[in-house]
Design goal:
heterodimer, A: 363 residues, Rossmann fold, six-stranded mixed β-sheet, five-stranded parallel β-sheet, 39% helix, globular, B: 339 residues, alpha+beta, Phosphoribosyl-aminoimidazole Synthetase, Chain A, domain 2, seven-stranded mixed β-sheet, four-stranded mixed β-sheet, 23% strand
């Protein structure tokens, strides 16, 4: 864990911050894609160390936040049917239309919080008389492990394991944001961990089409200030290209073994994004050949559709049009203990980041 | 401890009849024998000639055995520390078990032995207690409640309202050890580590501090559940002052830091069992620190921050890179992240 201290070093970080101050002459809006980056920016107090002219806009890269409301209701429906539902911890407090998974657990649902979908396969093996479903949400980052769980279940010959999948992809979301008439974004910090899996090649066409700088960036303070510096430098020089700040982790081709596993189980298809709506070719759906591992098909729950809470502006937050503290409900009707929408719950949600780490500085 | 002749605890052990008597005589009275308990009365009659501090706590931890301890010593140290945090010298404990039928007798005996060891080490006597057995599925192996009674130190004047702007905040050692040790053994989250719970009694260090500094010590507080962040926030709110802390000053052991990072948890909200913070008059913090570092429970003590008039009710932390952020209280349990 030596990287922890190296990339949180005061002097090294200050050097880049000073450079950013030195070269910035105009106002720039830079969107960090990933919720992990948002949290690191806020938690480390980086936003207030940047020049006023450099504004960070928080992007949609929070897997919990973009998971549509009806998926949570579907997971709850499964719990109520007696299915063992396994989930990453982040998801369980997100409100569905009536309750959260945590509340469904409190009234008897068998909900298990796991770190790895492979543990869900073990649970399925140990409970042959029960159905076990893994709530497989996330971006490209979690797709390989979720896909691998299906391959493991197949290898074990398990017929009681399936996944409730809601996988979304970063590049289509970036296009949707850039195509929005209200978009004011001048450059992107690309999501480092997504690119660790997928590589960076799919971003070259985006740079060319929208003539916008993209810097693939890591998550530690030093990564972020260096990424911001690289983006501002391009903007000030009037150029646009794809750069990789996070080269210690992200390779041009990505993780080819992981991509192969993804492509075995999933294919690209339309996905609904919470607060944004359906985006074509924006996510993974389970391939026909593996449909028996698709919980939506297995349990006949596709019909569950519910409207979003009209007071939650998650869509505008996720597209970077509004900041969390520009929401009327922020910190009032909507708090982490009683959230209106997912961005206030997830550890990567922009609203939660503002609530926990920063906004109270100014109130 | 004598053998009971049973391999597991059954409902009969809580019936109040022969089996209960057998269990109490052979395991409990035998182990904890002292003049107060030996009266075998419904309650204990004791004399305390001072102000007394009383604290009660229930222990429901899973797993009941973990690296660095078990629920038995936790139940002693937790309550001993709560009494000590009042500026008192813990003297007596009550001890009540709620046992789920089917608990292995050997496990119960190990827990009782740990209670005894921890009580001896803290200098407290078990003077009264209770044992109940519930049906399988109605408990989680074993729950323990302890109530502690202590003599308030003659020089102690502990109150959150004594805190003034400029007062210094110190902690006695590494934070987040207990929570991460438990986390590393919890079902579904097992990961390889040498993390060990920090469960320990703090009463002797507290007593030394009061002997030396008396009223210049404003507050003791042990940040158990909710962690250091939540406790600091509570104090700031109670007295409408701001708290300023430096991330770089907070003692955090490398392996714990790495485990927190891996699981996406913030050590500021992870539970502690052998940690306390102490608030002292400005000017004496160096002496306090020296005393603490000379004590076995304070080797890694550190000055972490102070009270301020700025940002009342808020805890502001200066990050390692010099930025500032709010430390807000924990809402619910900390949840492992997706990625």
């Amino acid at each position: 864990m030596k990287h922890l201290s190296e990339y949180r070093d005061f002097e090294a970080t200050k050097k880049y911050l000073d450079e950013i101050h030195k070269i910035t002459t105009r106002e720039w809006n830079i969107m960090e894609i990933c919720g992990g980056q948002t949290h690191s920016l806020v938690k480390n107090g980086i936003l207030e160390l940047l020049p006023e002219k450099v504004r960070m806009i928080h992007g949609p890269g929070c897997p919990v936040c973009v998971t549509p409301l009806n998926l949570i209701d579907k997971a709850i429906e499964l719990l109520e049917k007696g299915v063992i539902v396994c989930s990453f911890g982040d998801m369980i407090r997100v409100p569905g239309s009536k309750k959260s998974l945590l509340e469904a657990k409190a009234v008897g649902g068998d909900l298990r919080i796991l770190y790895s979908p492979l543990e869900a396969v073990s649970i399925a093996k140990q409970n042959p008389d029960k159905e076990v479903v893994f709530f497989a949400v996330g971006f490209e980052t979690t797709a390989p492990a979720n896909a691998l769980s299906v391959l493991h279940a197949e290898k074990e010959g398990l017929i009681n394991y399936s996944i409730l999948a809601s996988h979304v992809l970063v590049p289509p979301a970036m296009e949707a944001i850039l195509d929005d008439k209200l978009c004011t974004i001048d450059a992107f910090l690309g999501a480092g961990h997504v690119c660790a899996i997928m590589g960076i090649q799919e971003y070259y066409p985006l740079v060319e089409k929208y003539k916008i700088p993209i810097v693939i960036t890591g998550f530690e303070p030093l990564d972020l200030v260096q990424g911001i510096y690289m983006a501002v430098k391009q903007l000030e020089e009037g150029i646009y290209k794809l750069e990789n700040q996070y080269s210690r982790v992200v390779k041009e081709q990505g993780n080819t073994a992981a991509i192969k596993v993804i492509n075995t189980i999933f294919e690209v298809g339309a996905r609904e994004w919470r607060g944004i709506g359906e985006i074509p070719n924006s996510g993974y759906v389970v391939k026909e050949a593996y449909r028996k591992y698709d919980a939506e098909a297995k349990f006949n729950i596709s019909h569950i559709k519910v409207p979003e809470n009209p007071n939650c502006i998650a869509g505008e937050i996720l597209r970077g049009i509004k900041k969390p503290n520009q929401c009327d409900q922020f910190g009032k009707a909507c708090k982490p203990a009683n959230p209106l929408g997912a961005p206030m719950v997830s550890s990567e949600g922009a609203c939660a980041a503002y609530y926990h780490f920063s906004t109270h500085l100014t109130d | 401890m004598e053998k009971t002749g049973f391999e597991t605890i059954n409902l009969g052990h809580g019936s109040g009849g022969e089996l209960t008597r057998n269990l109490l005589d052979k395991v409990i009275f035998n182990t904890f024998s002292n003049p107060f308990l030996d009266q075998k009365h419904d309650g204990a009659i004791v004399e305390i000639n001072s102000k007394i501090a009383i604290s009660t706590d229930s222990f429901v931890i899973t797993p009941i055995f973990f690296k660095g301890g078990n629920i038995g010593e936790l139940a002693v140290n937790g309550t001993v520390n709560d009494v000590a945090m009042c500026g008192a010298i813990p003297k007596y404990l009550s001890l009540a078990f709620i046992i789920e039928e089917g608990l292995k007798m050997e496990e119960f005996e190990r827990i009782v032995a740990s209670v005894k060891k921890a009580a001896d080490e803290s200098g407290v006597l078990i003077i009264t207690g209770d044992t109940k057995v519930v049906e399988r599925g109605k408990g989680d192996k074993i729950f323990i409640n302890t109530t502690g009674f202590g003599q308030v130190h003659p020089k102690a004047n502990i109150s959150v309202h004594n805190i003034k702007t400029g007062d210094k905040i110190l902690v006695n050692g590494y934070i987040a050890q207990h929570g991460m040790a438990i986390m590393s053994e919890r079902e579904g989250l097992e990961f390889e580590s040498d993390l060990v719970s920090d469960t320990a009694n703090l009463n002797f260090l507290v007593q030394d501090l009061l002997d030396a500094f008396g009223e210049k010590i404003k507050l003791f507080r042990d940040p158990t559940r909710g962690g250091l962040g939540t406790v600091l926030h509570e104090i700031a709110n109670d007295i409408s002052k701001g708290v300023f802390v430096k991330e770089s000053a907070i003692p955090l052991e490398k392996q714990v830091a790495a485990a927190c990072e891996m699981l996406g948890l913030d050590p500021m909200y992870v539970a502690n069992e052998g940690v306390f913070l102490v608030v002292v008059d400005p000017g004496i913090e160096a002496e306090v620190l020296a005393l603490m570092r000379n004590h076995k429970r304070g080797k890694n003590a550190a000055l972490i921050g102070e009270f301020t008039n700025e940002h009342p009710n808020k805890v502001v932390m200066e990050s390692l890179i010099g930025g500032k952020r709010i430390v807000s209280p924990l809402v619910g349990e900390q949840l492992p992240r997706i990625c």
